[in-house]
Design goal:
Layout: H1 7-10, E1 14-24, E2 27-34, E3 39-45, H2 46-56, H3 62-66, H4 69-84, H5 91-95
Antiparallel strand pairs: 1-2, 2-3
């Protein structure tokens, strides 16, 4: 996640991420708490966020790691693979098993 942070967050660093709201089909507005306890929000591109997550969490551990949120990740992976030709590893084949 560090390499996906908005530039203005990099100097202070993120203490915690709170929530995300859909800004558009390809961007999220992320609410975060910085290390100085300031609450802020900023844009995150969906494609790099999902592909980075796909490299960290194997498909067979997706639901165990992310619980109900994994369904959103699986849907995003399908959207990226089918509509944008972005490969997100083996998520779709493993979650279908």
């Amino acid at each position: 996640m560090k390499k996906l942070l908005p530039a203005e967050w990099e100097a202070e660093g993120v203490k915690d991420f709170w929530k995300a709201d859909e800004k558009s089909d390809e961007e999220l507005d992320i609410l975060a708490q910085l290390r100085n306890n300031e609450h802020t929000h900023g844009p995150f591109d969906v494609v790099p966020l999902i592909t980075e997550l796909a490299e960290v969490v194997p498909g067979d551990r997706l639901f165990g790691t992310l619980a109900g949120s994994a369904l959103s990740c699986e849907q995003a992976a399908a959207y990226l693979e089918e509509d944008h030709d972005v490969t997100v590893g083996t998520w779709l084949s493993r979650t279908a098993e």
